[in-house]
Specification:
With 328 residues, this protein is an alpha+beta fold. The protein has 9 helices and 12 strands. Helix content is 18%, strand content 20%. The N terminus is likely disordered.
């Protein structure tokens, strides 16, 4: 008999926040922070949401972008109030199932924000995010998203192909990989004050993966600039890979000759590898990957190899399974 051991981070469905509490979450969180301050508990105060408010995003006029109908779904789009409050963004906390991450992430200032482009490029530079966004051809794409924890959602991302950024960055011929790095700001990201993980969050892809048509840099969601908890103002979406490859709130993109070691690979390489593709027949060391739970519908459906995008990406890995661990 198979006995499933619940991971320490997993909450039972019965622990879901009641609707009334959810709807008043900002009031409760603010009140709780004030009480903690009064009691001298030393918890960070909740900042006014203005710095992280997507309604004040300087590129708001570019949304909604035109949808690219080449990217369609076989399932309903996950409602925004569900996907927007079910976030793995460990810099802001590990409780993905309620408002915690979304509310804490509001403190992160969206501007000024720059992205450093360095490594094997014609010219290293630091570019403002608004200049990058306005230089790119924004479009909306409907993508499936598959987490290594066996849950999934379907999201209308807005952004631009990674290959467009590659052309913008002008890498040299010696660049074989793209290394991406998330912000470090412990003043707004509480978990970065602890030493559980080796911040900053780092991950990478091959140049071939980055040039694939599916590889997408995200700046918006649901027809508007992305709220912070989605990884604003710039994140990666690789729909054929596990979600931990979707590095968020990027501040540095480096073109390098050697394979980057991502944060999760550094922490637990046996469970989270560089390739991180999705195969229903290859279980995670601690649970099956044969099926997934759609957080929007609650439906459990069979996992698709390469998350259903095999026709577009399988050729990237032809023959590599003899020397590389392509699936986790």
């Amino acid at each position: 008999m198979l006995i499933r051991r619940r991971p320490s981070w997993e909450l039972p469905e019965s622990a879901a926040t009641p609707e009334a509490v959810y709807l008043s979450r900002r009031h409760l969180l603010g009140a709780g922070a004030g009480l903690a301050a009064a009691l001298g508990l030393g918890l960070p105060a909740v900042a006014a949401p203005t710095p992280g408010n997507p309604d004040l995003d300087p590129t708001k006029d570019l949304y909604p972008a035109k949808r690219n109908d080449a990217f369609t779904l076989d399932r309903p789009v996950t409602p925004e109030d569900i996907s927007g409050n079910y976030n793995n963004f460990y810099e802001f906390g590990s409780d993905r199932r309620n408002y915690q991450v979304a509310d804490i992430a509001e403190r992160m200032p969206r501007r000024p924000w720059t992205v450093k482009i360095d490594g094997l490029v014609e010219k290293e530079r630091e570019v403002g995010i608004d200049d990058i966004i306005r230089a790119m051809p924004l479009e909306e794409r409907l993508y499936r998203h598959r987490c290594v924890e066996a849950w999934s959602m379907a999201v209308p991302w807005t952004g631009f192909p990674v290959r467009e950024f590659i052309a913008f960055a002008k890498p040299l011929s010696g660049a074989k990989y793209i290394r991406m790095e998330t912000f470090v700001n412990p003043a707004v990201a509480p978990a970065q004050n602890r030493f559980i993980y080796p911040w900053p969050y780092v991950d990478g892809v091959t140049m071939a993966e980055g040039m694939n048509d599916l590889a997408f840099f995200v700046t918006g969601v649901y027809g508007k600039p992305a709220p912070n908890q989605y990884g604003a103002p710039l994140r990666l979406a690789l729909p054929w890979k596990y979600g931990f490859k979707s590095v968020k709130s990027i501040v540095r993109i480096s073109f390098v000759a050697d394979r980057p070691v991502g944060l999760w690979e550094q922490v637990q390489g046996r469970e989270y590898g560089f390739w991180a593709n999705v195969n229903p027949e290859v279980p995670h060391p601690r649970w099956s990957q044969a099926s997934e739970r759609d957080i929007g519908t609650g439906e459990r459906r069979p996992t698709l190899i390469y998350n259903g995008y095999g026709e577009q990406v399988a050729s990237l890995y032809a023959g590599m399974d003899k020397t590389e661990k392509l699936f986790m």
